[in-house]
Amino acid sequence: MSLDSSRLLNAPSVRAADLHGRFVDGPSTARGVTASNLIVDAGAVTMPHDLDARIPGLGELRKRTLGDPRVTIVVLDGYPDLTLSSLRSDQISMLLPYWHEGASPITAEQHALFREIANSDLPDKQKEERLLTEFSPDILLRILGDRHATHITSVIAGRPGTPAPGIAPACRVIVVPMNQVGEAGEFISPLNLARAFDLAHDWGADVIHCAACVPTQTDSPHDLLARAVRRCLDDNILIVAPAGNNAGDCRCFPAALPGTLAVGALKDDGKPFKFSNWGGNYSADGIMAPGENILGAQPGTEEPIREMGTSVAAPIVTGIAALLMSQQLQAGQQIDAAAIRAALLDTARLCDPAVIDEPERCLRGVLDLPAAFEALFTSRGGIGASGRDDRLLVGVGPVPQTGVMTSAASSSVEETLSPSALPPTVADSAASAPASVGATGGVEQSTAHSGLVYALGSLAYDFGSEIGRQEFEQYMGREAGRAGPDRPTPHEVQHLIEYLDRRRTERDCLIWTLVIGGSPVYGLVPEGPYADTIYETFLQLLAGQSLTPDQSDFIERISIPGRRTGEMIRLQSKAEVPIVAVTDLRGIYGWKINELVDDAVNRIHGAEATPARAFLHHAVTDFLNRVYFELHNLGQMSRDRAMNFAATNVFQAASGFAAAVDEGRVLDTIVVTKSPVCRMHSDCWELSLTFFDPDDEGRAAKMFQFTIDVSEMMPVTVGNVKSWFKRRGFGH
């Protein structure tokens, strides 16, 4: 008998909203497996895998390759137990996110207590009550997330010959543990997910396995998340995500985003689970894989466990995709993520309506590994690049019995408190690097990539706490000698600026923030010999932002160069944002849109008010706004910093673009690519803007191109802005 989930979810200390949809597997069973019933032989790398008989072709593929360390899989999930024999490998490491403070790992004793309660003979209600008594909500959520991540990581890359062997153990695996805060919603925050995808991209991912499943009713993603995913797809990265277990014609992100590979769950009898999501984009971009009785590791013990759900089906596809990438490399080819995705989808077997009541639940179809392999590697004669027969020999037998011991108590607790039901929260460290796991299983954390930031947004300030706000109110009122409703208040920007002009030492008592899309994303701290001047600049920018949009000195947005310190700062809302040290005045721009557009238009039509001038003024304003909104990002990765600095150049060179607009052309595309030519030790990118005439498709398009070097904190333009004409439909 399963636990009454409504009782647990209505408990005062755990809200339903906190547990809903953060990981994907609502319904889940957990079946313990005794380690003594499994052969443990670290040297037996070719021993049969638990899934060989359930996935035709897998055994033959694993005889060819167990993976390649040149293939990198980044797993976005919880905090796995890397001390286990199945995960104690130099190929598996941890990369702690920079956007949250770290937390002490869940102890072995805490995991043992969870298992003790889950496997006890107590009635379900008493199990619930004891779990909520023994663990605070944040610790309980973290335990469940760590169990989820441990299982998923072992399915992908567990060491051969251990209790939980994985599919592709020779591939490099980096786990980004995003559940360390223990606060609901952090894992599925679009901002944090976008950060995670960008981080995975920057660390060389070939496959990103994302355990998150953010439910959607509209199938319309947040722009930041959509951009981050698209950036990965454009750079030859395969994204695999579970379809979700909401039991119906519904979807979740990132699985529902075009270009990703969504994975649904099959029962042992080959039929789709009723809870496995379907519909929408899944019918084109989704595939079904085994999702019942999937063997994997659990933290704190060598005893493996069997789970079910779409989130345990997805890592099977991730592991198989990594093997196919490894085969590409070993055949002398380049990794082609798009080709692998297309092969898996195009060869998927359709469900038979005579057998499956609702065949649309099978998404695009059921995984057919031999057919996918043949599509990728087999030449006309059946011999691949290796000179041998590259067809997978398929033997289908009964589902193997591996000494499974079913624990009803464990099953009932995991059904409600499964890792899939909890919100993975996010761990931080000072920008981190992958660290190898030694024989002891310890994780050594190091620092992240450059840490440079060049971001666009608006300037704001925060008091850090209610006490901080009250202190400012009292000091400002006391200095003005006024009390009551007419006293100055820090919420009035002009009042605050006047106060800080007189009390210069109070400037660093505020938390200065950069806001993107309405959310604060960085805490800005002026440092170095120019700190006072930077504070003065902040006040000027703040004053310009406080004006009305029709005033000529109105500042709509700013640019900030800096470097992440690896530390976080807590705002009054309790949100935490990374600290960016701002040490250089160069690159801090405030864009006076009205003045900029007026100047550009005046150079073409003069200052006299005419219909043509008004039209051009509106068109140039729209163009500049589109450049900003189409390019906006967090400004951390090289590509993003190049885009943002190029955007400042677009504004500075607005008159040149205004001429193109005045010729009847409109902005068509904005493309950012790595520059094929660059100075030594530089990091150069090219941003190209294409303008075309919507009324005359035969008219040549006009191209503008910037080359940006972002190797230092302050990006620089390499050469001049280049422009030329090209025929429509031809490359540049």
UniProtKB/TrEMBL annotation:
Domain Peptidase S8/S53: 146-348
UniProt-listed InterPro entries: PatG_C, PatG_dom, Pep_S8_PatG/PatA-like, Peptidase_S8/S53_dom, Peptidase_S8/S53_dom_sf, Peptidase_S8/S53_subtilisin, Peptidase_S8_Ser-AS, Peptidase_S8_subtilisin-rel
PROSITE patterns: SUBTILASE, SUBTILASE_SER
Domain PatG: 453-563
One example GO MF annotation: serine-type endopeptidase activity
Annotated region described as Disordered, given as residue ranges: 406-428
UniProt biased composition (Polar residues): 406-419
CDD domains: Peptidases_S8_thiazoline_oxidase_subtilisin-like_protease
SUPFAM superfamilies: Subtilisin-like
UniProt KW keywords: Hydrolase, Protease, Serine protease
One GO biological process term: proteolysis
A Pfam family reported for this protein in Swiss-Prot or TrEMBL: Peptidase_S8
The PatG C-terminal domain, residue ranges: 617-724
Any coiled-coil regions, as ranges: none
Protein family membership: Belongs to the peptidase S8 family.
Xref: PANTHER family: CELL WALL-ASSOCIATED PROTEASE, SUBTILISIN-RELATED
Protein name as catalogued: PatA/PatG family cyanobactin maturation protease
Species the sequence originates in: Bradyrhizobium betae
